[in-house]
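Archive entry. Fields below.
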Amino acid sequence: MTVFSSKDFDDHETVLFFRDQDTGLKAIIAIHDTTLGPALGGTRMWNYASEDEAVTDVLRLSRGMTYKSALAGLNLGGGKSVIIGNSRTDKSDALFEAFGRAVDRLNGSYIAAEDVGTTVPDLEAARRSTRHIAGISEGGAGDPSPATAWGVYNGLLAAARYRLKVEDVSGLTIAVQGLGNVGYGLCKHLHEAGAKLIVTDIYDKSIEKAVQELGATPVTPDQILHQEVDILAPCALGAILNDISIPTLQTSVIAGAANNQLAEERHGHDLLARNILYAPDYAINAGGIILISHQGPHFDRAIAMKEVSNIHRTLTRIFERADAEKRPTQEVADQIANERITAAKKPIIRKKTG
Ligand code: NAD
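PREDICTED_STRUCTURE:
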């Protein structure tokens, strides 16, 4: 296994491996960058095929968090953790308490929250061993998914206004891939705003609910990316924008919650070449972390959600700059995030007195 020579190692500040024999815990915590503040990021529990795969995941995800928080204007750095194990069969309160002890050793330079495979109750168990946990009922924020859905809705609106020159989404046809916590929440906002929905999921029950409650048109998972629509909202998997899918897309806007939508960076150029406006994933899906950043004794959900809706402004800024510079939106988002981190790193030069 390699860390320093891994292609995903990006001068991460800290990569720590934890093992607790009693509970079977095997966890890795990666802190990518704390220039802007403590590293906040979710804890993913996944049955990785190999330890190399777990290291790759934690390196990539923690770097992504640095960019996400920087772009969202938060005073937070980037970090992430992974627990190697099956989230259906290997979980116990004791395991998460042991994980909490691992987080506690970092003295607040890493703050853990939920991610794929972990839930609010899991993090509440970890909270018994450390106070450096976010996205739990204590402190007000709770489940971040509704805030993520609200942020995606606002980002999608920004993309619609920018590219389709409409005031709102009423009458637009929008395809949503994945009806989970975020996808279904997004569908509700879109339905209330008068959009026509085409939806899919791998679970029939979720589709039936969307058909009954929201009047959505169902399609099979393999049909969703090729629908002729105004907007495509990927809210399930990563890497869905790739060499195979991009030539077949029939949309002029892509705006959805899924992480790592571009299979490779170069696919951002392919979307630009096809004149498809892409809302960079980590810019549009930052609602959850914005909400969590407000957690604390003075938590006010209304103020937090107002800040989430600023994703509209962030995306408009990215679209304008990308157009002016004729560059892919993802590249421009990276650059804006980098500029903020670099500015914060600059030493303060004190004026000489006397
Ligand atoms: P979720 O697990 O609740 O929902 C995902 C849904 O996608 C599920 O209903 C699943 O059945 C469906 N799905 C899986 N494979 C599919 C396929 N091939 N075709 C169609 N549907 C499929 O997850 P979520 O919390 O709603 O997150 C959705 C996406 O948004 C993920 O990529 C996640 O990383 C990202 N995201 C979520 C948050 C958050 O606050 N929850 C924040 C940022 C990013």
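CURATOR_NOTE: The chain has two domains: 14-64+77-126, 145-339.
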